[in-house]
Amino acid sequence: MSKYRTHNCGELNLENKGQIVKLSGWINKKRDHGNLLFLDLRDHYGLTQCVIDEGKFFFKDIEKLPLETVIQVEGKVLEREKDTINKNLNTGQIEVVIENYKILANTKELPLPVFSDQEYSEEIRLKYRFLDLRRKKIHNNIVLRSKVISFIRTEMQKYGFLEYQTPILTSSSPEGARDFLVPSRLNPGKFYALPQAPQQFKQLIMVSGFDKYFQIAPCFRDEDARADRSPGEFYQLDLEMSFVEQEDVFKIVEELFSNLFKTFSSKKLLHENFPRIPFDEAMLKYGSDKPDLRNPLEISDITEIFRRDDVNFEIFKKLVREGSIVRGIVTRNTHEKPRSFFDGIDKWAKDEGSSGLAYFSFEKSNKLKAKGPVGKFFSEECLKEIMKLMNAEVGDTIFMSCGKKPEVEKLLSNARNMIANELKLIDESVFSFCWVVDYPMFEINENTKKIEFSHNPFSMPQGDNDNLDLSDPLKLKAFQYDIVCNGIELSSGAIRNHKPDLMYKLFEIAGYSKEIVNEKFSGMINALSYGAPPHGGIAPGIDRIVMLLAEEKNIREVTMFPMNQNAQDLMMNAPSDVDENQLKELNISKRKK
After folding, report:
1. How many helices (H) and strands (E) does the chain have?
2. What pLDDT score does 466 carry?
3. What's the first-to-final CA gap in the chain, in angstroms?
4. What's the alpha-carbon Rg for the chain, to the nearest Å?
5. What pLDDT shows up at residue 494?
6. Helix (H, G, I), strand (E, B) or coil at 489
7. Residues 6+ apart with CB under 8 A from 259
8. Is residue 354 within 8 Å of 403, Cβ to Cβ?
9. Is the dihedral of CA 269, 273, 274, 280 positive or negative?
10. What are phi and psi of 294, to 5 degrees?
11. Distances from the Cα of 492 to the Cα of 68, 207, 497, 540, angstroms
């Protein structure tokens, strides 16, 4: 038996009635009733209510102890009175009458309360993260994270995957985000890079003859922070399979995610079989390759309407002649909404940096007409054509945007989400997964106007690989895919290009000579030259998975020791200055700005 406790603070119940027990933990909360003092003792497992009456000689001593003092108590387990039972606690039917106590550790004045989950500034929470992590909600999130990872490991082993560890110190790669560089002491002037992902290594594992690999892999990218992305480091479920096609990867991931989300959440899955949405369709219907399918609103292209003679909306017609597009969103049966509803959406669009959203509602008396600021510009025949194109009905409203394709896609993607929230169309009780597939192999960089890879440069292009038409590379699709849940991208993946000759041709289109490819990807190219199996994989983000399951909007809430927005660890004061002797050993000198 431990000298500190006979039981933890979450396990005592009526079966322990009358027993003498020892508990150890933090004083979570105190309630002083004058002649009785109640204190909730907390450890990792839960809370136990303890009580002491004023007749005990140490009553005043315990009364003065600050919250978060670590103590040990010894006493008898009693049944609570019926009207004091706490059904929210596992230990809610009992209490412990304190006969003896011992202080195990004192505490300084707290910078934030632990018994409350109220919001505090990011700076305070991250500086005192060890206190923040004692709080119930975030403590439970971190426990959930651990259980999710354990569940994933067990499931992957059931599917025949084996876990292997890949190097942390590796070489820098020319694609992707910024690398974190590590200077080499033994090789002066040269640097390792922390892996942005184990991409090349997991492919090399397949080339080495191991059939199914997975790893809960740490990844390092020198990127700016976002709500759904930590600066610096994150973890992903990295997996790779040999002798597979795209559907083989989908089958494993769908089964894993279905089991995972059903196990750790009471929410339903909107689709048992995850829909496959081509990239071009996703950008048209949702304005994004991360669509939230809980949202029923869809976007339609109505550019051709503005080439008609019976449309007098000259602003849009002029822009269409100059190469712009027009797309719109239908909202069902909203024609009787107050003017403030429509003006609010238009104002929101202007706040987003656009010229606003044109709108009108379909109405019918003797004939079909359009009610709204721009309704007068459309003939009845034109309105009928819009209704047909957008699957609209009398009583519905059309919100339209005109401009360059990327601008319209971005605005209407955000508008789709904003309007759905305004109309309360999002079903918060479900998880909606989908695959976005058929990504273009290449895209035009808007700044440089040069062709570059749109996704993963090691992906296999679609088509006859031995007779691939590369005359118009922007039409080339790849076996690349993203898995998305509730509008959050969980992962990108691909069937890999295992043919060096084809890889050289594709990299040449993106501006990489054979010599550069051989230099930057020497390990990969060399390995693929010795007989590589067709293979593919994916790497869902652990942080984002747990974020969804915990119903959190910020990744910080499911990460044990996150950095702040400036990639600083306020608790450990990282990054920090280093000793000049350390720099000398690494042959590095600092230059003043």
Report:
1. 16, 24
2. 84
3. 61
4. 30
5. 97
6. strand
7. 155
8. yes
9. negative
10. -70, -20
11. 44, 21, 15, 7
137 pLDDT higher than 60: yes
Q: Using the 8-state DSSP alphabet, how is residue 325 labeled?
A: E
Nearest 10 degrees: CA dihedral of 572, 577, 581, 585?
80
Give the Å distances, CA to CA, from 48 to 82, 229, 354, 411, 525: 17, 37, 57, 52, 61
Q: The tokens of 468 are what?
A: 């691939």
149 Rama sector, left if φ>0, alpha if ψ -120 to 50, beta otherwise: alpha
- Name the amino acid, one letter, at 162: L
The alpha carbon torsion through 95, 97, 101, 107 (nearest 10 deg) reads 40
Distance CA 52, CA 67 (A): 16
Residue indicated by tokens 């719109």:
328
Do β-strands 397-403 and 325-331 pair in parallel, antiparallel, or remain unpaired?
A: antiparallel
For residue 162 the two structure tokens come to: 């084996």
**Phi, psi dihedrals of residue 576, rounded to the nearest 5°:** -135, 165
Q: What amino acid occupies position 82?
A: K
One-letter identity of residue 8:
N
Which token pair is 354? Answer: 């656009």
In contact, 209 and 216? CB cutoff 8 Å: no
What would the pLDDT profile of 86-130 be if each residue is shown by its tens digit?
999 999 999 999 999 999 999 999 999 999 888 889 999 999 999
